[in-house]
## 1
Amino acid sequence: CAVVGVYNADTAASVAYYSLFSMQHRGQEASGISSSTGEKLITIKDRGLVTAVFGDDKLKKLKGRSAVGHNRYSTAGEDSILDAQPVFARYDLGEIAIVHNGNLTNAKQIREDLIQKGAIFQSFMDTENLIHLIAKSQKEKLIDRIIDAVHKIEGAYSLIFLSRKKMFAIRDPHGFRPLSLGRIKNSDGSFGYMVASETCAFDLVGAEYIRDVEPGEMLVFEAEGEPRSYKIFEKQPRPCIFEFVYFARPDSRVFGHNVYEVRKNMGQELAREKPIEADMVIPVPDSGVAAAIGYARESGIPFELGIVRNHYVGRTFIEPTQQSRELKVKLKLNPIKELIQGKRLIVIDDSIVRGTTSRQIVRILRAAGAKEVHMKISSPPTISPCYYGVDTPDKSQLICANMTLEETCRFIEADSLSFLSLEGLRRSIQCDERELFCQACFDGKYIV
Ligand code: 5GP
Ligand code: SF4
Ligand code: MG
């Protein structure tokens, strides 16, 4: 998912809107914004893309100088309007809207416990737990209730809370999902503040990146002036390595590293680890482009855009059934026949999940006359599902968890198949040796 919070800024809702638009890749199922007029919160949310949910007239209704927004990508809950965010509620202290990127690992226990005690839920979202935890806390002030509530939850969360007067942003102690702080200049010269999942949002709305919200940190935005920082958990950073592989936009700066640079390095590492003779290197657009550039540069084999992408088709894995996913690959990708006919191809993609994309690609390349197709993946085999906010299917559907390398290669019908090693992936980030990441989908070692 994508989250954004805007505080004390001119046209806050429109800043939130453009931010969500720039982060559409993080979730395409539903979108929503809550704004605060200072007196009340206004919420508009629906299923669909950002542009479909908010026409001009709708944005105008979202008055006020603060707003939170969300793009949904279902990892917990169901694909229904009830599961769109922000989650909004009225309670004894007033009104609150919450947006959440991540996935709470103890949501089920908390929910059962709350239901036992008489709570009623509207949605299947783990985020709804937070409303109840905040409403039930015995503390007097909202800030203390939020702190209370987040001490009861576990798992991955980058959270933003908006009340009528204040905004709070929190990253879980491991900092699984990204969250960055920026500021934006108002027409009177004062500054408003922003938090967003990715820094590409700041670029679009003309905000200035300040720093990342730290794992275990809470920022409180109140009246004028800079946000106040509270360390509410001991830091144990384990940011998600898959943000670099696939999830984040290449023009974003995530966990202190530019995503494009990291992806290019991944391609270079892959060329060093898994060399092979071929006539050209072609990416699976868009997710394989940066790594293919790196691979071509390192190997000296020419880079070509051998597959053209139709940009009016979104991310294919979001499709609910296997059949519709297969059709969508065809709709989305088409090879350039004249270019690849009779050629030995190295095809670069970022990851193999179910194997659907890779197999379809190999098939369309062969049908277009490719002589050899060598599939190279710029991450290790995905062998375990993610419980921290990325929608990988369960283990039974992960092809690399159920087949050997040779079997997977045969399944996708390629001449050869190879993956980047986990060490190679780490090297690509060029981080400090002691820097730890979550890499559970690649090594099965879960942190929470
Ligand atoms: P496959 O056809 O192997 O299931 O899909 C793999 C492709 O889907 C990758 O090339 C990648 O672009 C994209 N993908 C990236 N992240 C995810 C994810 O979290 N879940 C799924 N299913 N696919 C993803
Ligand atoms: Fe990221 Fe994989 Fe960890 Fe999930 S399991 S947080 S996708 S590294
Ligand atoms: Mg892809």
## 2
Amino acid sequence: MTDRYAVIGNPISQSKSPILHTAFARQFGHELQYDKLLATHEDFAQTVQRFIDEGGKGMNVTAPFKLAALEFADTLSDRARAAQAINTLKFSAEGVHGDNTDGVGLVSDIRDRLGVALENRRILIIGAGGAARGILLPLLEARPAHLLLVNRTESKAHELVEASGASRQIVAAGPLSAVEEGAFDVIINATSASLSDAHLPLERGVFAPDALAYDLVYGRGDTAFMSDARRLGAAHVADGLGMLVGQAAESYRLWFGRRPDVEPVMAMLR
Ligand code: NDP
């Protein structure tokens, strides 16, 4: 019987997950049916349960259900617990396991695909929403020299950094204006500002020589952040498509024990 997988969200029509997982399955000759499931907050749990009852093996979870999925999981990976959000569910005889592959998808995209080192580098994260929460622990595990997390609502930046439990020598929080505190090697825009073409208060001094500017937003061409970064001297500029494909590849690995090759899938999507 063909294994069934799905992505659940609202809205869901825009999701690229079926295209990604079908392409991954083709690399290994796996038989896979991958559907899109639309749910509401009221019927989220029933929709997931029905999918399991019908033989579903795994599910990707997207906005706005990444928190709701926490309630549904019997066990959590460390990174899902740290992120307090789930983007991948695995259903088996042992129960429902929840994971969060967003951060490791980003780290593998930066390190493996773009070839930019994170160890001993200075990292700046702008934003303290769900995406920032998902990437903070995996970025800290990449052993940067220093990580500064800034946010428009400063208190949220402090809450995230406190919750990470990392040493104050490594990680710090501040308001958006704290981006002026010296040069960074990797600057990650984890805000949704690019969705409304809003500009962030970036200065030339933020970008160290050879800096990477990475916008988590994808599918919008050059964003305001990406063009500002280029103008202000960032040596490398990327959007979040590689993170999207990377997180999907890690979900696939969780389900099937094999990590697909992301390059041909990136090329297909571009
Ligand atoms: P949230 O709504 O949880 O958080 C939004 C964040 O953006 C907050 O920190 C908010 O600040 C900040 N923000 C919004 N507008 C502005 C602005 N004009 N200036 C400064 N800061 C602003 O969103 P998510 O964290 O879930 O997602 C953030 C982005 O990441 C989205 O655009 C999403 O598309 C992208 N993403 C990409 C993924 C990928 O695979 N590539 C995966 C997940 C997300 P404040 O707290 O002050 O409101």
